[in-house]
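Pasting two entries for a bug report.
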Amino acid sequence: MDQVDALAVLTRQLGRRRTQRGGERLTDNTLIRIAVDLLLDRAEQLRGNTEDELLASLKESTDR
């Protein structure tokens, strides 16, 4: 499953788990904005030259 498909599945799962109906609609773009905000908040933790290295540096910093 690629990232686009996995994101769509996650969006649907979260939508089904919502405890309150109405209000802001949960979309793929909602989750993308959350991911970007998180990435920007943790920008100082990024280390590496490749996508794999950058991702690993973020995962290491959250595992502590």
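Entry 2 (this is the one that rendered wrong in the viewer):
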Amino acid sequence: MAKKNRLPKKIAGVKVPKPLRKSKMLRAIMDNSGGRNVLAHALTAVQPRLRRF
């Protein structure tokens, strides 16, 4: 069984650095649906620019 409070290494094709994955603030954002929604929109907006590199 997978651990419940872990973030994946990649979100929307973008690698998430280890210190950020371990961040309590990011976990708090991911715990509520509003925070997940904001994070998803931000990653979706930034992703095309990150793919160029």
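Dev reply: Rendering is fixed now. As a check, the viewer should reflect this: The chain has three helices and two strands.
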